[in-house]
Design a protein that fits this description.
alpha+beta; 1062 residues; Immunoglobulin-like; single chain; eight-stranded mixed beta sheet; elongated
Length: 1062
């Protein structure tokens, strides 16, 4: 076997270690050192506690190992001045385990944790019948500083729980269950000096000291033995004898088979582990376990070909449940040796020569391959030249029929060989390359082609006939299986088929359409197990197809093969290792009795040379001889006896540790109370397990105490559990470790109380209630005082306001009288205007019209006729303005509703143009009207005429030798009437005043309105009353005034043509 060193870099939570083979076929060896997490490379002692954790005493501190990581205890955690640990002891009545540090400081190990134990807390043992010490109570383990100088020869030697040998002054006393069993004197000198153990080639393993040494004893089977002369295979049994002499006992068992033992060239060295009551003999790179059996010290070989001298091995511990050996080295750290339950058969040559697929039994304990190799465990491979072929590359096809004949395919032919593979008995020529061969229940041979052809081979003596039964196009045949005569299961690269061999009817299983069938296994008449490459495993039971779980790693999605052993276990190969599952668990899962299936995982440390197994061949694995199973891999055939496979124990208890609340480490026993506002609570799980880490499966659930079952969740890869903020309540955190035994689990619970906020406790509620009552009382008193003060202020304000109101009422009465007088005056003015101004104007206008008519008829060339016309027009204009003013004043005074109607802007504009045409003519100005006669607006004619009249009057006054344009145009739903001139322009302050919307009567009574006469104020007020928006634009070149009115809709009914507008 090659010597090699392989560095394994594991996940962050797992220590880095160096795993190597040291010419050892039985153990996989891992070496851990300070780079792996050890505090120091010098391991003095290695032991295990009652939970299965391994503890190491080193020069750099105390360390706990669980198979995945080291937990190192610092001197600050243990309150020590020095972290140098020298030994372990369990010399206590209750079997407690202690680590002994420098200066005889003791550290108790309990429930997987280490903590400092004070002297007053140590258990005591009463010693009896020991002369002057008969009444002494001595702490366990003994502390030399509490005794006098004369006690230095005192020793207590543990022989099991509650059983002790006490040595003092050449006397040995056995105390069992607190009672003295016997007392004997030792004649030969006994040294109490601590021997110096030096594993070196120079010292040849010799120990210092002569005669007996109290530290070179062992307690096996409850008996005390001294190693005679410190080295050698003879031991003195310290038991009372009738003749007064002690019995000399020699080592028996496996050690006697060691050639060095028989020759006596080397001495036997003993490694002592009093804490675990284990004792080992080392000789010639062989390690043996010493036991007491039938009155003899028997030895059992544990390890061979491992050099303790070279590796400075000082201590050892054997995990008897799985055979794992732990060796402590004074210079190289910790060695962990796990048993290999699997072997690998290979052939000499290149690595590609050991890539195997198909195989068949050859004799009682050998196998043969299509390449012609015969392989036998622990023997060199043999080549059978008769089936060798330089061009032969088909490794997937091999069949041994019931008559023991071998069937092999080459290119497009099938060969039948004699049972010893040395003679060809028949050759069948095929239409395509054969890739699968199968013998049915009647002894018939079926052949599957690489392109889907299914053939039956007939042997008619010298005539070899091939019958092509059917063909499945676009696929490759991957498997044949016949469960009953006339019915054939056919696996292909694109699904599973059933073939009726009589009718040749082919039927596809729709649920597995396009699945790449890897293998089929029928455990009984009703259960067909299927592996589909990339799709996982299935169970076809009475026509019902069930998808089986693929494990947490999903490696089983690429399962190759299933073989069942005699115990009802399925062995399943994949590209990532080998799995074992109980058939009953898989059936229970299919029947919904189990939520999941536990798959036990095996990888390279168990004895493989690679984790990648091969498939795609038939058979995919075979049974050989008395229960052996053989699987092909990328590096040889892996073979094993299922009944001899040793598994690391999964049923060890586990502990909670590394409690963390919002980043702060806390100590927890069986319960914890969390603050109500916590954000994150984290903890981790630790358990001793020294197998493949993938087999550790922890699940947890957290639920209120009275709530129904919650959902199980997996811990993270570091076995950590994280719980985020929870409402105030009492919770149970349940954690379970899955084991292989019927999918049972080891459970542990932690009670978690999330505290209520202080205001939800009764005390808090009462405090809040009292506080609220006090606040309410204070508030009522303050409010009452405030209201009283407010009432006084209010009374004063009422008095002041009453006085103000009285004065205001007097003012209103005075204003009313003034208003009445104003109204009377307005009536008088209206009458005066109507009687003294309008009537004369009417008379003047009428007479001037008559005079002009008569003059034109009698004196058509009268030179002042034109002036007369102007006077007539001016009189008419003044009359119109007077009447408009009277209407406006009457409208405001009476405050009546304004009636609107459909108006034609063009008519009004033309009327006003005719009225002002003469005046404009005197200014050499023309008036132009641009308006569509079809345009109608809603409005009041009189009011609109007043607005147009005033605007046109201003335009005529300011325009000289130019033109004035009045227009009306539609703008969406509205109509814009504009009056534009090219005169000197309206002052900007008046234009701004026009563009600002004012209140109803603000402009009539305001003294701040910029004025250009009373007319513009009338225009703005009438526009407000009619809802007309005015926009004025002015400049040095003229003024444009735009009125925005609502367009009259002609489709409205005539009954609604007049709209009332307030």
């Amino acid at each position: 076997m090659r010597h090699y060193l392989l560095a394994l870099f594991l996940i962050a939570s797992t220590p880095i270690c160096f795993a190597f083979h040291d010419d050892n076929d039985h153990y996989f060896i891992r070496n851990y050192n300070d780079e792996s997490g050890l505090p120091q490379n010098g391991v003095k002692y290695v032991i295990a506690d009652s939970l299965g954790f391994v503890w190491l005493a080193t020069e750099g501190g105390l360390a706990r190992f669980d198979g995945r990581a080291f937990k190192v205890y610092s001197k600050f955690q243990l309150c020590l001045k020095s972290v140098r640990f020298v030994n372990f002891t369990n010399n206590t009545p209750d079997g407690s385990l202690y680590a002994i540090a420098e200066f005889e400081k003791t550290i108790r190990i309990k429930n997987g944790e280490a903590f400092r134990d004070t002297l007053s807390g140590l258990p005591y043992m009463d010693l009896v019948n020991l002369g002057p010490w008969s009444k002494a109570r001595i702490p366990i383990p003994p502390r030399e500083e509490i005794f006098s100088t004369g006690s230095k020869g005192y020793r207590i030697i543990s022989a099991g729980r509650g059983r002790y040998y006490v040595y003092y002054n050449q006397c040995v006393v056995l105390i069992d269950s607190g009672k003295v069993q016997f007392s004997v004197n030792i004649k030969d000198p006994v040294s109490t000096e601590v021997p110096q153990l030096q594993w070196s080639h120079q010292s040849n393993g010799k120990l210092a000291g002569k005669g007996y040494n109290i530290d070179n004893c062992i307690t096996v089977g409850g008996r005390l033995f001294f190693q005679k002369n410190d080295l050698g295979s003879s031991f003195t049994n310290i038991q009372p004898q009738k003749d007064g002499e002690f019995q000399i006992v020699d080592l028996q068992g496996d050690i006697t088979k060691n050639p060095v033992f028989r020759s006596g060239k080397d001495k036997v060295r003993v490694l002592r582990n009093f804490a675990n009551n284990q004792f080992f003999a080392y000789l010639n790179s062989h390690l043996y376990l010493i036991t007491w059996n039938d009155g003899a010290l028997m030895t059992r070989l544990l390890l061979k070909d491992f050099d303790f001298d070279k590796n400075y091995i000082r201590s050892a511990y054997l995990n008897e449940s799985d055979g794992t050996i732990f060796l402590g080295s004074l210079a190289k750290g910790l060695f962990v040796l796990t048993q290999k339950s699997f072997g690998t058969m290979t052939v000499p040559g290149e690595e590609s020569d050991n890539i195997f697929y198909a195989q068949a039994p050859y004799g009682s304990s050998s196998i043969i391959t299509p390449q012609g190799f015969v392989l036998t465990p622990h023997q060199k491979a043999v080549e059978i030249l008769q089936i060798q072929d330089d061009n032969f590359t088909n490794k997937y096809t091999l069949l041994r029929d019931r008559k023991q004949n071998l069937w092999i395919s080459r290119e497009r032919s099938v060969y039948q060989y004699s049972p010893d593979a040395k003679k060809i008995r028949g050759i069948w020529g095929m239409s395509e390359q054969p890739v699968k061969l199968y013998e049915d229940l009647t002894g018939g041979i079926w052949c599957g082609g690489g392109h889907g052809t299914i053939s039956y081979l007939h042997d008619q003596g010298k005539s070899k006939v091939v019958q092509n039964v059917t063909k499945i196009p676009h696929t490759t045949i991957t498997w044949f299986h016949q469960d009953r005569v006339g019915h054939l299961w056919i696996g292909t690269s694109k699904g599973l088929y059933e073939l009726d061999t009589k009718s040749k009817v082919l039927k596809q299983i729709k649920a597995l359409q396009d699945a790449h069938i890897r293998s089929l296994y029928q455990s009984d008449a009703n259960h067909l197990w299927i592996t589909a490459y990339g799709n996982g495993m299935f169970l076809l039971e009475n026509g019902v197809l069930t998808k089986l779980p693929g494990g947490r790693s999903q490696y089983l999605d690429y399962a190759h093969c299933i073989i069942e052993d005699r115990a009802g276990n399925f062995w399943i190969t994949t590209n990532k290792g080998l799995f074992r599952a109980r058939k009953k668990d898989l059936l229970d899962y299919a029947h919904h009795y189990l939520e999941d299936v536990f798959y036990l995982y095996y990888d390279k440390p168990h004895g493989f040379q690679t984790n990648e197994f091969n498939g795609g061949c038939q058979p995919c694995g075979i049974k050989v001889g008395a229960g052996l199973i053989s699987f092909p891999s990328l590096s040889g055939f892996v073979w094993f006896n299922p009944e001899s496979v040793v598994n690391a124990a999964l049923d060890h208890p586990f502990i909670f540790e590394a409690f963390n609340v919002d980043g702060i480490r806390v100590l927890v026993q069986d319960s914890i109370t969390l603050p109500h506002n916590f954000s994150l609570f984290a903890l981790s799980v630790a358990t001793p397990y020294f197998g493949a880490k993938d087999n550790l499966r922890f699940q947890y659930k957290i639920q209120p105490v009275d709530a129904p079952e919650g959902e199980w969740l997996f811990t993270d890869t570091n076995l950590g559990i994280t719980i985020f903020n929870q409402p105030s309540d009492d919770y149970i955190l349940t954690v379970r470790k899955m084991t292989e035994s019927g999918n049972r689990s080891v459970e542990k619970k932690l009670f978690i109380r999330v505290a209520k906020p202080w205001f939800l406790h009764w005390s808090g509620i009462l405090l809040v209630m009292f506080a609220l009552a006090g606040i309410i009382l204070i508030a009522v008193r303050w409010r009452t005082s405030y209201l009283r003060r407010k009432n006084k202020v209010l009374w004063q304000k009422v008095a002041d306001r009453t006085l103000e109101l009285s004065e205001a009422l007097d003012g209103l009465k005075k204003s009313e009288r003034n208003l009445n007088r104003q109204l009377q005056l307005q009536s008088i003015i209206n009458g005066a205007i109507s009687h003294d101004i309008r009537s004369p104007l009417k008379y003047l206008s009428s007479n001037i019209r008559n005079i002009l008519t008569k003059t034109e008829s009698e004196f058509p060339n009268f030179p002042y006729l034109h002036i007369g016309n102007l006077i007539h027009q001016s009189a008419d204009q003044v009359l119109v303005m007077t009447e408009d003013l009277l209407k406006f004043i009457k409208l405001i005074r009476e405050d009546k509703e304004i009636l609107t109607e459909a108006l034609s802007p063009r008519e009004i504009l033309e009327a006003k143009s005719d009225l002002f045409a003469g005046i404009a003519e005197t200014n050499l100005t023309t008036i132009e009207v641009v308006a569509d006669p079809d345009i109608l607006v809603n409005g009041n004619r009189q009011m609109l005429e007043i607005i147009i009249h005033n605007l046109l009057d201003n335009a005529v006054k300011s325009t000289y030798e130019d033109s004035i344009v009045m227009s009306a145009e539609r703008r969406g739903e509205n109509v814009i009437i504009s009056v534009s001139d090219t005169g000197s322009g309206m002052p900007q302050e008046i234009a701004d005043w026009f563009n600002i919307t004012s209140g109803a009567e603000e402009e009539l009574h305001s003294h701040d309105s910029p004025g250009s006469g009373f007319g513009l104020v009338v225009v703005k007020e009438i526009a407000r009353m009619l809802g007309i928006r005015i926009r004025v634009q002015t400049s040095e070149t003229g003024t444009s005034v735009k009125l925005l009115l609502s367009q009259f809709k002609q489709q409205q009914n005539l009954d609604h043509a007049d709209v009332q507008h307030r």
